[in-house]
Amino acid sequence: MSTTYTAAGSVQAPATQTRRRPNFLGRYFNAFCAWRIRQSLRETLDELSDLELRDIGVTRGEIDYLVRADLSTDPRGCLEREAKSVP
């Protein structure tokens, strides 16, 4: 930090901000890893039979939605209805 002396006294100059360079490689790598996880999930769910999918509460038509969506979302709102019905 630098100090400037004036007739009124000393004035301390504000600290200069350091710019962070964008981390393109890190962001690309994270996006690639997320894509691979989604692809692996899609392949695993596609290999299941309709009966196995029904056992886990998923239909074949929901696979793409589940893979694209955040894993904490409930496509049919079942968890919301269950939470309301519990006294």
How would you summarize what this structure contains?
The chain has 87 residues and is mostly helical. Helices cover 51% and strands 9% of the residues. The protein has four helices and two strands; from the N terminus they run ββαααα.
Overview of this protein structure:
With 87 residues, the chain is mainly α. The protein has one domain. The protein contains four helices and two strands; from the N terminus they run ββαααα. The chain has a two-stranded antiparallel sheet. It is elongated, with a radius of gyration of 27 Å. The N and C termini lie far apart (62 Å). The mean pLDDT is 77.
Count of runs of 4 or more consecutive helical residues: 4
Count every beta strand, where a strand is a DSSP E run of 2 or more residues.
Answer: 2
Strand/helix succession: EEHHHH
Q: Name the helicity range.
A: 40-55%
Strand order of the largest sheet: 1-2
- Report the major sheet: 2 strands, antiparallel
Domains (count)? 1
What class would the helix/strand composition place it in? mainly alpha
Low-confidence stretches: none
Beta content: 5-15%
The chain-level mean pLDDT equals: 77
Shape descriptor reads: elongated
Termini Cα gap: 62 Å
Rg over CA atoms: 27 Å
Features:
mainly alpha; 87 residues
